[in-house]
Write a structure and sequence with these properties.
The protein contains ten helices and 26 strands. The chain is α+β, with helices and mostly antiparallel strands and 496 residues long. The chain has three domains: 56 residues; 224 residues, no CATH class; 192 residues, no CATH class. The protein has a 26-stranded mixed sheet that branches. Helix 1 packs across helix 3. The protein is elongated and about 110 Å long. It starts with a helix and ends with a helix.
């Protein structure tokens, strides 16, 4: 018999003796005889001995063979969570605050490919049955500073983990990242994980997944769980910064997934129907089922990557697209679309612009192709006075700020109405048919640089000087007054 086995057997005998002793005498204790006990040196020595024995019991796993404990932990994790771990050779044991094993630089494998690298992994075990490796039972697991590498094949990794058994056990992931890749090592986007937790709700009798994340500098939280029959995944997503709440229901049918979502965006409600198949994602957004006023349809193909979004709306809110905190603006700032493998087209028609009734019949066109983002052929009307059209336009990032650069064509349909709106003096009201100019607009600073301004194909230097820098105000009323004064200065200069 080895020294380790002898020690374990001896501790077992002592442990059984202590348990019997405690069962016989604990019920007899009260405050009077408790003070007597502590005056008795033998009793104190007994408690000291019990403490030493308890600590010795907790230290038993330190005697286990490294290879044996590594194999045991890997098998337990494989059986309970269907996770294939690869540990570093150095596995440390600590019993404070609870018995657990610690390993660094561990990995999670999927079909022999690494899908996660974990800087620090803590595996907590039960207090019971520490005498033998065979009897060790995993309780909780904490992953810290992990990097997950997911793609179109295993993008459901975190959702599928929900189907594993979490009763009496938790999985926690802290300060980690998720790299979603398209082709080989080509990263499409990165999601930060501040805190993620899998646990079993004893009241609802279901596994729950909760996570606090960040994507494109936008924080969000997710709570998700499966229905009793495991055919539906129900989740709630909150983006407090954007005042967006999403309630989602995903149904699993053979090789496809059918989903329904309710979007609440700053008191604006939208419904979404979507379908996920092996290499595609189709969706339909609308405001109501019968005779919707707002409707958007889109499709994403993953092999090859191609996306298309078309929509019609009575009103479009450009702040949701291009304001400094908007998710589209944040996406563009990441320069994720500056990729020759991405092909994306956006076409949205709207009757008007939100909070600006002067603009109507908006045709928003955005195309991402060959690493370039252009808004060519984007058109809109200003009252019944003028038509605007963007040409040779590109969106790009300069010094961390989102910039639109291009040409603008303005066709004046009613020049008299223009002058009347601007309250221009009659002696300056010359006929104008068309204005052409080059411009650069900074979405973050809300500054427009105008140059090469041509009025009816003629350049006026004074007009160019006056309109060289247009700085938008925070208040709409201030902007109206500012624009009227600025344009009247230019008109007076043009009229001589």
């Amino acid at each position: 018999m080895s020294k380790t086995n002898f020690f374990v057997k001896h501790l077992k005998n002592i442990n059984n003796f202590i348990n019997n002793l405690l069962e016989k005498n604990l019920n007899k204790l009260n405050f009077k005889n408790l003070s007597f006990l502590f005056k008795n040196n033998k009793i104190i020595l007994t408690f000291v001995a019990l403490f030493v024995i308890f600590v010795s019991y907790l230290l038993l796993p330190t005697f286990f063979n490294q290879t044996d404990i590594s194999n045991k932990l890997k098998n337990e994790l494989q059986v309970k969570y269907d996770l294939n771990f690869k540990f570093s050779q150095n596995i440390k044991y600590n019993f404070f605050p609870r018995p657990h094993f610690i390993t660094t630089d561990s990995k999670i494998l999927d079909n022999k490919k690494e899908i996660a690298e974990i800087s620090k992994l803590k595996i907590f075990i039960s207090f019971d049955n520490l005498f033998s490796i065979k009897d060790i039972e995993i309780r909780d697991m904490i992953l810290e500073n992990a990097n997950f590498n997911l793609n179109t094949k295993n993008y459901n990794f975190f959702i599928e983990l929900l189907n594993r058994g979490f009763q009496g056990r938790n999985i926690i992931i802290n300060n980690s990242n998720v790299f979603f890749k398209y082709i080989e090592d080509e990263v499409l986007f990165i999601t930060k994980i501040f805190k993620m937790k899998y646990y079993f709700d004893s009241k609802e009798l279901k596994n729950i997944f909760y996570s606090e994340n960040e994507i494109f500098n936008i924080p969000f939280s997710v709570e998700s769980f499966f229905s009793e029959d495991n055919k539906k995944n129900l989740s709630t997503i909150n983006l407090d910064l954007m005042k967006l709440n999403i309630e989602n229901e995903l149904i699993f049918e053979n090789n496809k997934k059918i989903g329904k979502s309710k979007l609440n965006l700053n008191k604006i409600k939208r419904l979404v129907d979507y379908k996920i198949e092996k290499n595609s994602f189709d969706f339909h957004i609308f405001d109501k089922i019968d005779q919707p006023d707002v409707t958007y349809k889109g499709k994403f193909n993953f092999k090859p990557f191609y996306a298309n979004l078309e929509g019609n709306s009575d009103e479009i809110n450009l702040n949701y697209l291009f304001s400094s905190n908007a998710i589209v603006a944040q996406l563009l700032k990441t320069e994720i679309f500056n990729n020759k493998n991405i092909d994306f087209k956006l076409n949205i028609n709207a009757d008007s612009i939100y909070k600006n009734s002067n603009f109507k019949n908006v045709e928003l066109n955005l195309k991402i192709q060959d690493g370039l983002i252009d808004t060519d052929r984007t058109k809109f009307e200003w009252r019944d006075i003028a038509d605007f059209e963007l040409m040779e336009s590109l969106i790009f990032v300069r010094n961390g700020e989102l910039v639109l650069d291009g040409k603008l064509k303005i066709k004046i349909k009613e020049f008299n109405k223009l002058y009347k709106f601007l309250l221009t003096p009659k002696n300056y009201r010359n006929k104008i048919n068309q204005i052409d100019l080059n411009f650069t607009y900074n979405f973050d600073q809300k500054i427009a640089e105008l140059k090469d301004i041509k009025i009816d194909n003629k350049i006026n230097d004074n007009v160019n000087k006056i309109l060289s820098n247009v700085i938008l105000k925070k208040d709409d009323l201030q902007n109206k007054i500012y624009f009227k004064n600025l344009l009247n200065q230019a008109i007076k200069s043009y009229a001589g």
